[in-house]
Design goal:
By secondary structure, the protein is of the alpha/beta class. It is built from 12 helices and 30 strands. Helix 5 packs antiparallel against helix 6 and helix 8 crosses helix 10. The longest helix is centred in the last third of the chain and has 28 residues. About 40% of the residues are buried.
Length: about 450
């Protein structure tokens, strides 16, 4: 046999773990829905069998997560004997005993020829679903994986439902194929690894929580991706991923890191409104990571002609770059002034307020401190001098400021006007940049 050949898939009805999971009946191939009474009996039988391997602390935590106390009570010896008889009847084998509840759960290289209902099942140990093939719906809604679940190279031909599922350890979906709709809505991951996975029928991660790392590098989303209101607590990797349909990150929360999309290709229908981004970096390491991430997002938004989003990511990139240079350098000061005076070219009110403050401050000096100006001025005279200085780059109508008034000013007053002219010109320029960006006059 070729060592590189894939192991042959085995029918689910040759797997003792499947017999236990469907102890009181399988999902009828010709039926769209599983009998709820059978589903409940299967779940309770499974969960109570594994309850004997749970600690009191684990049982308490599961109850906090919505599991009833009754389905977490281990079978009594008498009930266990009855369970063994039911298992023999289900399997049709007298030489096969109930699986060891302390061992890893092994469904690897199994083909499921019908819909599978594992709603609310607990998996207290590692769960191996490597290279499995689900021909129909695979329903893991509200399932709890306390060990390490492995779905490497798994194939989901129908619906893949993991809604409200809990993954307490690293969940591995590397190279998994989701041909149907994949629903991970409101699921909770510790670490999720979807590297090189393929989502053809759409991926729903709405309100999903990623407590640690989230790897989606080289993942293909060809049926759309919904990460609306998802929470990412740590590193998020979308390197070399491809989004070929509508993608939603609206109202997502990136707590500590910016998603890394380097090498990725985003769809023009990518939504970012309402996203909460990480706080400004405080050290150079985090700042450099943010620069790379925002730089890439800015490039993608530029390619997609999404000007508003491009400006958003450019602003955040500049904010991160400021941490990378010493505060005594010109680069740091220019960056800071750009942020304070115009919000990195995004704010119109900041330069407008700055112009008003400058006008009033210099005007007040010329009215109330004649010792500095060298002459006493009325309020209209001081206002005209201050106004003319701010708008010095523009041609002034005659009478705005008489030459004899300017000649009578002290040297210090003239210096004040030069400084005002400089900052006035700067603020007018920043106002123009903000208006250009606001109305996308490119």
């Amino acid at each position: 046999m070729n060592a590189a050949a894939k192991p042959e898939l085995k029918p689910a009805n040759d797997n003792p773990w499947y017999w236990l999971a469907t102890l009181y009946g399988e999902w009828n191939k010709d039926s769209k829905e599983l009998d709820q009474d059978i589903a409940q009996k299967n779940r309770i039988a499974w969960n109570r069998w594994f309850a004997k391997a749970l600690s009191a602390e684990q049982r308490d935590k599961l109850q906090e997560n919505g599991f009833s106390r009754e389905e977490l009570v281990p079978w009594t010896p008498k009930e266990e004997a009855e369970l063994a008889i039911a298992f023999t009847t289900r399997s049709g084998r007298t030489d096969q005993s109930l699986p060891d509840p302390t061992r890893a759960i092994d469904f690897s290289h199994t083909i499921f020829d019908r819909n599978v209902c594992l709603i609310g099942f607990i998996f207290p140990n590692d769960a191996n679903f490597k290279s499995v093939m689900f021909s129909g719906t695979a329903d893991f809604e509200s399932a709890t994986f306390s060990g390490y679940p492995t779905f490497v190279s798994a194939t989901f031909s129908g619906y893949a439902i993991f809604r409200s599922a809990t993954f307490s350890r690293t969940a591995i979906f590397v190279s998994a194929t989701f041909s149907g709709y994949a629903n991970f809505q409101s699921a909770t991951f510790w670490t999720a690894n979807f590297e090189s996975a393929t989502f053809t029928g759409g991926a729903n991660f709405n309100s999903t929580t990623f407590s640690e790392l989230a790897y989606f590098n080289s993942t293909t989303f060809s049926g759309g991706a919904d990460f609306k209101s998802a929470t990412f607590s740590s590193h998020i990797d979308f390197i070399n991923s491809e989004f070929t349909a509508k993608t939603i990150f609206a109202h997502a929360h990136f707590i500590s890191e910016v998603p890394d999309f380097r090498g990725a290709k985003l769809h023009e229908a990518t939504e970012w409104h309402g996203v909460r981004w990480p706080s400004a970096p405080t050290d150079k390491t985090k700042a450099q990571v943010q620069v790379y991430a925002y730089e890439r997002l800015k490039q993608e938004m530029e390619r997609l002609k999404k000007h508003e989003d491009e400006l958003l990511f450019f602003r955040k990139e500049l904010r991160a770059r400021r941490v990378l240079v010493p505060f005594w350098t010109a680069a740091w000061w220019f960056n800071t002034l750009y942020a304070v005076l115009s919000g990195y070219g995004q704010s119109t009110w900041k330069p407008l307020v700055g112009l008003c403050v400058l006008f009033l401050l210099v005007g007040a000096v010329f009215v109330w401190v004649p010792e500095i100006t060298g002459t006493s001025m009325t309020i209209p005279q001081a206002a005209s001098v201050s106004f003319a200085s701010i708008f010095a780059i523009f041609p002034m109508p005659k009478g705005i400021m008489a030459l004899d008034v300017f000649d009578s000013l002290s040297s210090l007053a003239k210096i004040i006007l030069v400084v005002e002219a400089f900052f006035g010109t700067l603020l007018l320029f920043l106002l123009g940049v903000a208006l250009r960006n606001r109305f996308r006059m490119r």
